[in-house]
TrEMBL record:
InterPro entries: Isoprenoid_synthase_dom_sf. SUPFAM superfamilies: Terpenoid synthases. It comes from the Bacteria. The lineage of its organism: Bacteria, Bacillati, Actinomycetota, Actinomycetes, Streptosporangiales. This is Terpene synthase family, metal binding domain. Pfam families: Terpene_syn_C_2 (PF19086). It comes from Streptosporangium canum.
Length: 315
């Protein structure tokens, strides 16, 4: 599988990216005066100032995803626009990486709608024969991803899927303090684990278990979850410790901006973590490529949301 050319140094230097750190970083712009409406995300996040690059094989990715949904028997277009999100998130990877991630996006979207499928999916992961389309789709994806990953990854992914299943069945409204972890679980903590098999890289346990790596993964997921909440008006918006409506939306936008800054702070520490654990150059390059994907996914997700006419109020 083709690898993107990395744009970083494994020495103790700040992370640098071809797209320019300044265009990817967030700019915190406080609303002035007595503006009644919350500042749009595009005004608060400088990361949205420049568009994400799009994968050059986008049409082929879309066609491959449509063919796959028909082959495994999923409903027509169950994850509208998944190829656009995956094409942005993995624009510099091979077509196979973006296509595989798009298929997983569709599958996880369907799983969120039908968490009752968990028992059957778990049985398939254990070697059982798939039944309904959701199980058949999972079996197809699992055959592609699981053999190339270690036992640790498989356990993490299935644990994340179990956590998602439990969170989706939990109807208790969370507090603002409890929501970040619950929101990641409901949205699909397992999505973060899919970056590794899609890119063909399993992050070594010492790096993956470091505080800096966990901060990168969690902050990346939080931004995607909270932006989804802003678009839908549920989740974190509902849990905000301020009255519902514009005040809650503004409060969540503040959290998104702050979380993006925390993501970049954590990402800058990854080269030091890699060096500390003695990875050779090839392994270091692969690990930092995965970190780059976690930096790109929130920006790609934001742009994917904002291009939809349904979410014009966030622009």
């Amino acid at each position: 599988m083709p690898r993107p050319v990395p744009s970083y140094s494994v020495r103790r230097e700040p992370l640098k990216f071809y797209s320019g750190e300044e265009t990817m970083r967030t700019g915190v712009h406080r609303p002035t005066g007595g503006a009644a409406l919350p500042a749009p995300l595009t005004e608060r996040l400088a990361a949205m100032a420049a568009p994400c690059p799009m994968h050059p094989s986008m049409y082929q990715i879309e066609a491959a995803v449509i063919e796959w949904t028909r082959r495994v028997g999923l409903e027509a277009d169950p994850g509208a626009g998944a190829h656009l999100l995956a094409g942005r998130a993995f624009a510099r990877y091979g077509m196979g990486t973006a296509t595989l991630f798009a298929r997983w996006l569709i599958w996880t979207s369907r799983f969120r709608e039908k968490p009752s499928a968990f028992a059957g999916v778990l049985a398939v992961a254990g070697g059982g024969e798939p039944g309904p389309p959701l199980e058949r789709a999972f079996a197809d994806l699992w055959r592609v991803c699981a053999p190339g990953m270690g036992d640790g990854w498989r356990e993490r992914f299935l644990a994340g899927l179990a956590a998602q299943h439990a969170a989706l069945l939990d109807t208790v409204a969370p507090s603002a303090e409890d929501y970040p972890a619950l929101g990641r679980a409901r949205f699909g903590r397992c999505l973060s684990d899919l970056v590794e098999p899609c890119t063909g890289v399993e992050v070594p346990a010492p790096v993956r278990e470091s505080a800096q790596w966990r901060a990168v993964v969690e902050a990346s997921a939080d931004v995607a979850v909270w932006c989804d909440d802003l678009a839908s008006g549920r989740g974190y918006v509902a849990a905000a410790p301020v009255p519902r409506g514009e005040a809650a939306e503004q409060w969540v936008i503040d959290r998104v901006v702050a979380r993006m800054e925390e993501l970049w702070t954590a990402a800058r520490a990854i080269p030091v973590v890699v060096e500390r654990h003695g990875l050779d150059f090839a392994a270091s390059r692969e690990v930092i490529q995965v970190a780059c994907a976690f930096l790109t996914i929130p920006r790609a997700y934001l742009e994917w949301l904002l291009e939809s006419p349904r979410y014009r109020h966030l622009r």
